[in-house]
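W.,

You were right to be curious about this one. When I first looked at the sequence I had no strong expectations either way, so I just let the prediction run and decided to look at it fresh. Below is the sequence, 378 residues in total, followed by the output.
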Amino acid sequence: MIIHIIPAYKPAYIYGGPTISVAALCEGMVCAHHDLKVFTTTANGQKETEVPIGIPMLVDSVQVYYFRRSIKGQTHFSFSLLKKLYHDLNDKETVVHIHSWWNATAILSCFVSKIRSRKVILSPRGMITPYSFKNRHFLLKWLIHKSIGKKLIDYCKIHVTTEKEKQDVFKIQPHNNITVISNLIDTLPVTITKDQNSIKPSAKIKLIFLSRIEEKKGIELLFLALSELTIRWQLTLCGTGNDDYINKLKDISKQLKIETRLTWNGLIERTEKYRIILQHDLLVLFSKNENFANVVIESLTAGIPVCISAEVGLANFIIKNDLGWVADLTKESIKTTLISAYRDYRKRKSIAQNAPLIIQQHFHADILIPKYIDLYQL
């Protein structure tokens, strides 16, 4: 039995990539006939997910237990979740797979599993990196790491999604048991891909940002670069985040006189994702730190090329397979890269034709699930 621990699960899509990729993994394992269950909280942004509490529910064929948070907020502490976990670790063959870090659900679940001497897989989901360590509450994170976190991380087998994330984890804590396996991607069927005939020289390029709207995503730097472009462009921003930060971005766009070229779509429904992606020519994501970035693969699945920063975990994959453009985190580099993407419409046509097959060859569940089974040593 595998017990997956994550602070938020479907339908809490507000938390972005981890919720989606963990659900895809669990659904893939169930399809491969492996026993698992998910322990999660009712966290759903400012709201609570309205579900039965503490009893098993089938969510897209996955057995999920939802527990109320004892303390609301980003700590995601749930005493009832920890109590249930302790009880369910009676079987010595049980494997615990913890997703995320720097929250009470993850850290205390790891602690409970350690005192019960059970095997733990830790997928930090980009949370054990120099950027994450120093970004917000540095002193508190340092105290947790020195007092208990370091020993808990040493106890775990670490799973990361890219070589870049592996290097980032190693910078925080050298570890001799780290396995790299890519995320599984949301398996909504994509029956239509980008029409190559719609890609023409000199046409306005339609850009899309599709992610959580937060400071680490580099949106302010993108706005600065866009404000100096002379090419024709339009940007759609899909995602949600802190209202104060979104309002700050809107103020910046007005100061830069680009607000009329921006469309704010908010959080889009999962079933609408590919339809909206296909209305655009280029995905942009200039994050300051990103362990994987599901949306990069989702975009390429539909034949839409990507323009990303070198700090996105999939940057080397994009370069190796020539599936887009990679920029440094400077205004000038982003400008140059966007202009190159605009002008090289032949490359965009080639990506529209070749990307869906390349993605299938690298990220299909049939390829990745056996690697996860090896990770659990089932």
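Here's what jumped out at me. The first strand starts at residue 2 and ends at 8. And, maybe more interesting for your project: DSSP finds 14 helices and 16 strands in the chain.

Coffee later to discuss?

I.
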